[in-house]
Design a protein that fits this description.
This protein has two domains: 229 residues, Aldolase class I (TIM Barrel), CATH 3.20.20; 129 residues, no CATH class. By secondary structure, the chain is of the alpha/beta class. Helices cover 46% and strands 11% of the residues. The longest helix has 19 residues. It has an eight-stranded parallel sheet with strand order 1-8-7-6-5-4-3-2. Bound molecules: flavin mononucleotide (FMN). The site of flavin mononucleotide (FMN) has 28 residues, from strand 2 and helix 10.
Amino acid sequence: MAESPFAGKVVLAPLTRGGHAAFRRLVVELGAEVTTSEMAVVKNLLSNSPAEFALLRSHPSEPFFGVQLADRKPETAAEGARLAASRGARFVDLNCGCPIDAITRKGLGASLLRKPTLLARVVTEMVKAVDVPVTVKLRLGWSEAKGENVSEVAKACEEAGAAAIGVHGRFREQRYQKAANWDAIARVASERSVPVIGNGDVLTHYEAHERWQRTGVSALMLGRGALIKPWLFREIRERREIFPDPEERLYMTWRLLGFMREYFGDKPSAHRRIGELLPWHLGFFCRYRPLPEAEWGEASRRHPLLQTRLPQGEGLAPLERLLRDGRETTHRAIAARLIAAASFDEALEQNRALAAELPPDGDGEASEPSAALVAG
Ligand SMILES: Cc1cc2nc3c(=O)[nH]c(=O)nc-3n(C[C@H](O)[C@H](O)[C@H](O)COP(=O)(O)O)c2cc1C
C-alpha cells in the first residue's frame, strides 16, 4: 500500500479568515508541506457564490493543498468534493468541528458529531465522488457534559472510507479555555488504522515532537501556532528554535503584504480587505515570544505554552516592543505604514519612528482577534 500523503507531515489547519492563499504561500515559503483552505460552505458553492469559489483557489507553490468543506447532505457534499477536486484540491476535508452557532444551527460543522450515521453517509458519498483522499476534522465530542464520542465517530469515518482523521483535542463548547486533550487524541490514533492527525496547542518544536512521540499520531496540524509563528513548520522539521529578530519579522509581514496584493488584486475592495486583514495578522504575530527549550521545556510539559500567559519581556528594543504590542490601534498603525511604504526600507524606517513614539502600556495580554472564536 502506498504511504499516506499525511504520514510524518505537519499540516496547516483550516483557518477561516487567516488561511487565505497569500498566508498559505508565506507558510509554504517557511516550510509547510500540506496546507488546507478556509472552510467553504457547499451550499454557497452550489449557488455559485464567487467569494466561496475563491476559497478553492490555491497558489502554485503549495505542494499538497486540500479544501475544507462544510455540508450535511451526502449528495451535495459529493458535488462539493467534485468541485474542489476539479479545481486542483489534492485532498478534500469535511468540517465536523466548527462550533459557531450560525453553522451548527444549520446542521453543519460540529453538529455532525452528534449524527455519526449521517456523517458516515456524507463521507461515503464524498469518497465515491472523487479520486483524491477525503479526510474529516473532528473534535472530541459535542460537550463535556454529553461526553466524548470521538472514538465512535472516527470509526464510522474510517469505515466510510476516510483516508485520514484529524482530531482537535477539545469539545465543541470548549473554545480555547482548556488545554487540548492529547491523551484522547492518542487513544483515537491507537484505535484507527488510517492516519490520525493530532491538533491542539502546538507552539514550539519541542511540544510538537513530544506530542508526536507520546501519542503515536501520524501527523500534526497547526492552527494558532502557525498564525503566531509562520516559520513553526521549519522549526519542527529541523528540531531547533528559530528566533527571527524584529526586523526579520517585520520583513515577513512585508512579504505577506506583497503576497496579499498579488492574490487579492488592486480593486478598492481588495485594498479594504488587505487593510482589515493585515492588522488581524499582526494581532497574532504580536503574540510571538522566543521560548528556548532550556528555559521553557519544563513549563511546556505542565501546560501548553500556547495556553500560557507569556511574559512581555523587559528592556526590549523599541521595534521589538512595537511588534509585541497587543493593542489593535498599534496593529493598525503598523499596517498603515507597511501599506503606505514604497519599499521595505521605508516601511522599516516608518515603523522605527512609530516604535520611538509608542505610548507605554502596550504590553497587556494581546487580545485574541475576534475571528479566533470561529475556530472549528
Ligand atoms: C482564526 C481561526 C479560524 C479557524 N477556522 C477554522 C475552519 O475554518 N475550519 C476548521 O475546521 N477549524 C478552524 N479553526 C480551528 C483550527 O483549525 C484548529 O483546529 C484549532 O485552532 C486548534 O488548533 P491550535 O490549538 O493549533 O490553534 C480555526 C481557528 C482559528 C484560530
